[in-house]
């Protein structure tokens, strides 16, 4: 791992503008994002678009997916509503990935993905700053009608990122091995 610039990265603590519970969540999300960006920030367009096989996801696709997942949870939790047809068009093909994503998500430099990630996260953190801690514990039905709360939903956002960061690391290794 490259040297990380943020001196407080390994401390889950109070964040300016956020309540204590939101600070804890934002601390974990920040660590996840910083480490994801460290994995991708120097990649070329060809590296971002590299496919292991015809059914694989590229690193660029996974970065776009991270943005779409976070936007989906912004709609679900901040707006407390189902997706409209317009939302689905905005979120896809990055949310679902697959053939359409392989066709459409390519040819963009890392700066594009980093800006999308940053702007989407800014909206999340700004909105967190307007909500009371009690909002995190509000429950609603989730997968298969099981109860969950907003805290778990936002944990799932960075859990998804951690999983995909692992995939990014594997893709980078396979990409390097294919050049040998």
TrEMBL record:
Lineage top rank: taxon: Bacteria
InterPro entries: DinB/YfiT-like, MST-like
Gene3D superfamilies: dinb family like domain
Name used for this protein in its record: DinB family protein
């Amino acid at each position: 791992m490259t040297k990380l610039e943020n001196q407080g990265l390994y401390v889950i603590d109070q964040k300016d503008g956020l309540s204590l519970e939101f600070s804890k969540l934002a601390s974990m999300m920040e660590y996840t994002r910083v480490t994801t960006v460290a994995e991708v920030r120097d990649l070329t367009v060809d590296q971002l678009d590299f496919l292991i096989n015809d059914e694989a996801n590229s690193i660029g696709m996974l970065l776009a997916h991270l943005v779409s997942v976070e936007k989906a949870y912004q709609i679900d939790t901040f707006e407390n509503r189902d997706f409209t047809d317009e939302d689905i068009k905005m979120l896809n093909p990055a949310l679902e990935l697959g053939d359409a994503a392989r066709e459409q998500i390519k040819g963009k430099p890392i700066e594009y993905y980093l800006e999308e990630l940053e702007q989407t996260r800014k909206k999340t953190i700004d909105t967190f700053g307007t909500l009371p801690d009690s909002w995190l514990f509000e429950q609603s039905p989730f997968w298969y009608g099981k109860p969950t709360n907003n805290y778990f939903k936002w944990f799932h956002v960075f859990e998804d990122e951690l999983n995909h960061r692992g995939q990014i690391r594997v893709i980078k290794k396979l990409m390097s091995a294919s050049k040998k």
